[in-house]
Fold this sequence. Notes:
By secondary structure, chain A is mostly helical. Helices cover 76% and strands 0% of the residues of chain A. The mean pLDDT of chain A is 83. The chains are: A mainly alpha, B alpha+beta.
Amino acid sequence: MEDSEIVQRYLDRDESAIEFSAEKYGARLRALSFGITSDRQTSEECENDTYMQAWNRIPPNEPRTYLYAFLARIARHISIDRCREQECLKRYGYIVELSEEMKMCIPSPENVENAVALEVLGKEISNYLYTISQEKRVMFVRRYFYFDTLAEISKRCAVSESKVKSSLFRTRNGLREFLLKEGYIL
Amino acid sequence: MKNGNELIALELIDASIIDEADTYQKKKHLRMPMIAAAAVLVVLCASAAIGALVFKSGQAVPGSEKTGSEHIEHTEAVDPAAENEIGSVQLLSAACSDSGMDACFAVFPMTETVGKSLAKEDGGYYWSVDYSGTENPNATVRLTNLSYNARTQTSLVRVTLTGDAIADDAKTVNISLSVCSNEGSTSYGSTDVPITNFNVTGNGKIVGFRATYLPGTNEEAVLLRDQLEVDKDLLTESGIDISTLPDFENVFTKYQSTNGDTVSYSIVTYNSADLYHSTVNLNGEITIVKRENIGAYEAIFYTHSYSSSATGNDTSVYASLPPTNNVFLFDRAHECLLQIRTNTNIDMVELEKIAAGIETVETDIPAALFAGGSEGAVIDYWNDVPEMVWAGDEWVSVGPTATPISEKKREEIIAITPEAYDKLKRIDWDCGDGDSATNRNVSYLLKALREMPLSERPHPTYAEMRVTALCDNFSLYAGDNLYWSDVIISNVEKYEAGSTEANMLNEGNAYAIVCAQTGHGENLQLYVMSDELLDNFYSIGWQTSIQGWPVGHRGNTIILCIDRLAGG
């Protein structure tokens, strides 16, 4: 079923929207959540919570052409929060590690004035990501959105781990410079 | 500070980026692609609506070999074969990777109501596609509306298939497009996208080139040896000790000659692995001049010019450039491609001399080591940027390393109307003194632009885009950040008081041209041009990297001419 049809069901308050969402994207959302939480049960719970939040957010949102990304964002947020709450040590440590890497190149949302400004920041990050090659962009997003390990990224992109590492390093630096030029304080 | 908050910000990146990373998968095994110069020519000839030519290295359309001189123009005509159908779907460009396809289509006729609804994605109307592909559950299809041209009643839509959506032995993929709404759907028909097996293996070696004839001065070059030094660690990791390699003296991977501020010509090498994984784009109007063998190369000489103006809900206006002479040199034995691009100063005879003096130099280093290490695809820009193709009305991103264009970028096209020009003419430019004057002057201009509603910005020609500003002194200072709508503009050029440029402005002998570009590079640049130079502005401003900033290489650019600043 096309995304637009599923979204229409959300808008019509037809509960089959959730069923179709799960059928189409459930596996991917669970995989995303598992990549963050490393716990199967937790990832299933996060998936269910995702549909609940999606139900509450559509409308006013109408992600007719980007339903997966819409759900993925929710799932990711829920998973990170769950990880922090439960302080799953292994993954929490990994989140800390990734956060430290990101701190060097983007302002903390706590230092961003409001939701609109945060959205602008997201756009700016997107604008920067569009300026780099697809491979570098994918590596960056797989690392900091999907929480892939270096090994997983290396396999996905068919390159060595050292190349992934250096690419991420350069991309973070590039993003930092880009945001500094745009007036952000890091 | 809560750990993970910085990661939360990543949630707000564009949906297309999230999708792209989810479906991206690069395989090491090869699908036997090859670049064939003859095949390249065939695609250039066979592509229906030209103005957008994108072809995978060596992509060939079976049975469509052509010879001689072929002129390929953008056409807005409906395919005659489809005259009896309600609508038609015409393939504009296509790029094929191992497992997917990325193609642009022109769909006609599209009423203005529907076309604009699709462009705005307001939910009233939306695209639907059927394709002949695999049953692979990971296969995904994405539709992206690119633009709508009210004058030609043509919508451009991009279809991306990923996740092994195409069978390994497929020769074509049939794409059928419909437009749907709550009331039903309208089919516009279908077309076949050729998927051809090639035999660029991607297993070639890193190569560079030597040249016996490199005219011009002020050159910039990337020596192969230097390139190897930069990637020394990566090579060492792969067991290659560059100290044992030959010196590769005077062997380049890239060479560029400038004539003042203008790049006269540029020679760029593309290695086997990059060709395999990338896409060659030719944008604009292409005319094949001739094909011949030059030494070890299969050469295609062609002329190339950019010219278009887009219409529709949002617009961009482009300069019309005189054609330039260029050549592709394909070395089949080494599976490498050299592209020589020139500006209008290089005639075909000179280009042939340059091409005749080039030879490939091979290393023992597998090209696959560097695959993707550069900025990716084979492109026809001066700088390494994501590949773009002119899809008839605007720049779109296609190919295995495609970068989707966000809706926001398309909305950021701004034009200056004659009315706006009159309004800006009446601005009192408060010159003041010192740096603040500059910022205020440009800020006033930008503020006026920003305050102009989009609906009041139709599509003037360059001749109309002149704004007279009253100013006793005019200078800009580098490093200032100025804001124009939501586009952040930076890198304002600096002209010192007393400099030639400033004097020209002060004496009323020059035009200051402000270029604001949205899209990938949001930059505001100010150039000072004499009357004489202004006539040639297009070839200067659009083809060179002035002050390190590439101009006019992507859509959504507007140029304002601020003339006679001194004394108004």
